[in-house]
């Protein structure tokens, strides 16, 4: 119901905004994690701090294996929901509409 009120232009703006933020953050991380370690020691205190950093250098790559467990459980739950919905369709059972779905249907018929 709330999602239907968001205009297409606003959705497009936020989509491009997040893509731009990701496009800016990725090269910064690659520089901090990989490139800065290959450069000679710097006199600039900011670059020297990035070169001497060992926390984020290891933290970000090590979060990828940890994310496997939540991604697996999310897939498993979606698989169970899909199976339950598909077996109901095969058996011919109709799902009762929730209040939100009912409100959306009413709004679509009464603009």
TrEMBL record:
Superkingdom of origin: Eukaryota
Parts of the chain that traverse the membrane: 12-35, 55-73
Key words of the record: Membrane, Transmembrane, Transmembrane helix
Pfam families: PIG-Y
Protein name, per record: Uncharacterized protein
Native organism: Rubroshorea leprosula
